[in-house]
Amino acid sequence: MVGEGNSRSGMDKLPHDIIHNILSRLPITSLIQFGCVCRGWHTLSHDSHISRPKESNRCLVFACDQLYFIEFPDDNGGGRVRKFYPPFCASMPKYKVVCSCDGLLCIADSSCNKAAYIYNPFTGNYKELPSPEPSQHGETIVGFGFHPMINEYKVVKMVYRIRNDGRRLSNGAASLGSFHCEIQVFGLGGDIWRSAGKVPYLLDLQSSESPLVDGRLHWVTAPSFGGRKIISFDLADEQFREVPTPDDCAGIGYHRYPLAVVRGCLAAAVYCRNGDSEIWAMREYNVKESWAKEFNIRGYTPNLESPSLEQSHLRRPVRIICLLKNDEILVEYEGATLASYDPKSGYFKNLSFHGMPNLFRTILHTGSINWIDIPV
Question: What are the residue boundaries of the F-box domain, all occurrences included (predicted)?
């Protein structure tokens, strides 16, 4: 085995730009191992030019009360699913992944009313967030993201509480006047939750997506007389705004549709009456006229072992995970099937990997050595 002194002297013989170029090409799992060789290599591996998230380090995280991952299957096959072991899982055995941002996962307890963590699954570093005071219970929506203008990560939490008759929110199909909701914000550079005022919209409580585009988190509102709307929350000024939607896509106003990010643009997977799903993307952010239909995904019912699961997938839009390098679309059908879709041929291919859980939620994650200042 090469000793630390020899390792460091070997590195010193190479120009730093060459070392950076070599290390920047390593997959995230190799970069983690590289940083364990010696102190000098550890310091190099955490250089900001190397440790920041890279497209080549994309992976898929499968969440189902436990965390699994697979290095990105751009070849539409192969690979083995491996498991993460969060150091806090003993104190929070049931949890869900809110979202991924810059190599960090935001993880909350299954009800989103208590514990929450920011966790780098590849380094094991994490930050436990304090519980909001007073503790609130109700239907909860959580988002997490980074705004480059203020150089800060923020977690936002909204808890809808019923004002009068005590009915549980099941589909969000009631008026906002029946409920009270404030938004609380936690900046990772601070130590307390702050109130950012009242939430002026009743969001779709069954939607788990909060895509981050242009430093803003996005949600879809619950159905109302005015139809559904897309709402943004700016992490810089902490204000809600309505995002313009296309006039020539009727389904975007009424059907439930998941939001996503496609080629860096805000996108929506809109269900059509014929069973197809149209993928619309806003090519220039906040410009109504820039919405365009990027893809049409034909109707598809995956082969599922459980008839009840199969029925639950009917008449629902797909979740868009991302675009693959071969221009196919990676889609998920409500936590039971992962598939690639070729928009040119119109064919689907179910994807299954050894060790993959039966039920899951797929999160696109970019591995990095992004620091959270709590060593493990």
Answer: 8-54
